[in-house]
Design goal:
The chain is an all-alpha fold. It has helices at 2-24, 27-32, 34-63, 77-112, 122-133, 138-160, 172-192.
C-alpha cells in the first residue's frame, strides 16, 4: 500500500505541474509537449514498478526463511514475476491500456471528423491524465471530464444566452487533480482502518 501512496503523490505533483504549465503556457505550445509528457509519464510509472520489484526481490532474498522460499531455487521465478506484476504493474497496465484505447480512438475520430472534437495534440493530454488517474479511478475520470464540460457549457448558455463550444482542453487536468485527490483520500482511509 505504501508504494501506491508514493506513486499517488508523485503523480499528483506531476499533474499539478502540468496544470500550472497549462495556465502559464500558450495552448499551442502546451499541446506540442503533450506527447513527450505522455511518454515520460508512462516510462516513469513503469520504471518505478521495476524499482519496487527489484526491492521486493532483495527483501525476500535477504530476509531468510520463509520469505526466501518464494524465490528460486525454492520456487520458480514465475511466482515472483506474477507477484510483482500484480502488486506493482497491474493497475498501471490497465490504466495505460485504457489510455492507449482512448488515444487511438480519439485520434481516429478526430481525423475522421476533421479535428472537430479535439485539437491536434489534445488526445495525448487526455490519455496522459487518464493513465495517471490510475485503475479503477480512470472509469470515473472520463465521465467527470464530459460532465464538467457539459455543465460549463450549459452554465454559459444560460448566463450568456448564446451557444458556445468549450474545448475539453480546459477540463482534462482539473478533473485529473480531483480524481487524484480522491485517490489519496481513499489511501488514507484504507491505512486508517
Amino acid at each position: 500500500r505504501s508504494h501506491k501512496l508514493v506513486v499517488s503523490y508523485i503523480v499528483l505533483a506531476a499533474v499539478s505541474i502540468l496544470f500550472m504549465a497549462q495556465i502559464k503556457m500558450r495552448r499551442k505550445n502546451f499541446l506540442a509537449i503533450s506527447l513527450k509528457v505522455f511518454c515520460f509519464a508512462a516510462v516513469s510509472v513503469f520504471a518505478y514498478g521495476f524499482y519496487e520489484s527489484w526491492n521486493q526481490y532483495l527483501v525476500w532474498q535477504s530476509s531468510g526463511p520463509p520469505a526466501e522460499y518464494f524465490l528460486p531455487p525454492h520456487r520458480g521465478i514465475s511466482y515472483f514475476l506474477g507477484y510483482s506484476f500484480y502488486q506493482f504493474f497491474f493497475d498501471n497496465a490497465v490504466s495505460f491500456s485504457a489510455a492507449l484505447i482512448f488515444l487511438l480512438s480519439a485520434a481516429a475520430l478526430n481525423k475522421l471528423f476533421g479535428e472537430r472534437f479535439f485539437e491536434k495534440r489534445e488526445p495525448y493530454l487526455g490519455a496522459t491524465c487518464l493513465f495517471l488517474a490510475g485503475h479503477p479511478l480512470w472509469l470515473f475520470y472520463v465521465p467527470l471530464v464530459f460532465v464538467s464540460s457539459f455543465l460549463a457549457v450549459s452554465f454559459y448558455l444560460v448566463t450568456a444566452k448564446k451557444n458556445a463550444r468549450l474545448p475539453l482542453y480546459y477540463f482534462w487536468l482539473p478533473a485529473a487533480l480531483i480524481i487524484l485527490l480522491i485517490k489519496i483520500l481513499q489511501s488514507y482511509e484504507a491505512t486508517a482502518s
